[in-house]
Amino acid sequence: MKRMENPTTLATYRYYWQFGFAMAAYVIMLFGSIAAIKHYDLTGGIEAAVALIPVIPLVLVFAAIVRFFATTDELERQINIECLAIAAGLTALLAITYYFLEGIGLPRVSALWTFLAVMLIWGVAKCFVARKYR
Amino acid sequence: MKNRLRVLRAENDWSQAELADRAGIARQTVVSLEAGKYAPSLPLAFKLSNLFGKSVEEIFDAESADVVGKEHE
Predict the structure, then answer these.
(1) How many Å apart are CA A30 and CA A36, to the nearest integer?
(2) Which residue from B minimizes the CA distance to A132?
(3) Which of A1, A73, A126 to mutate to probe the B interface, most B CBs <10 Å?
(4) What ipTM did this prediction achieve?
(5) First-to-last CA distance in chain A?
(6) pTM for the predicted model, two decimal places
(7) Which domains are delineated in chain B?
(8) Most buried of A21, A75, A92, B71 (most Cβ within 10 A)?
(9) Who among A2, A5, A76 is closest to B26 (CB)?
(10) Is B26 within 8 Å of A3 when comparing Cβ atoms?
């Protein structure tokens, strides 16, 4: 039996392909969007629309992740869900902690950091959670 | 959860990768199942029982399962 027939293997390859395609599209659209805003005198709604163009491939990234979760192996899914829960919980804790620190004068930070924190903690948590099942 | 997967796999002369392909799961899941580190879902347990032609009880030892509420028995 060929390895490619395994639905889990297929789901993984499909995810890598879709994720790679979406990220490549993101990079192209990001630079295109930045260049358009720099070189053309865009204002108002058109400027906002052009600035938001890179979000389109990110929706594809999200769709690829959701599809991967739905089709992958059950243990892989369980590990990822555990890690996602840890990442969401720790990020919430970090966010509220920093919110209190902002109250005593620390600078306000971009909301983008919450996304980066979730991704970073998810990745680190996966190393430890996956070990539990080995 | 203790189980006889390793023995049954050896009897069929299947590698871990081959069992993974037949069951439609990752090889790592086979490793975790055989090590007793992961208890499969009911559909996967039935799929494995079909693959080996055994009942679920003949493959998995329910007594060794970490059942919630066991301490209240």
Answers:
(1) 10
(2) B37
(3) A73
(4) 0.83
(5) 25
(6) 0.80
(7) 5-61 (1.10.260.40)
(8) A75
(9) A76
(10) no
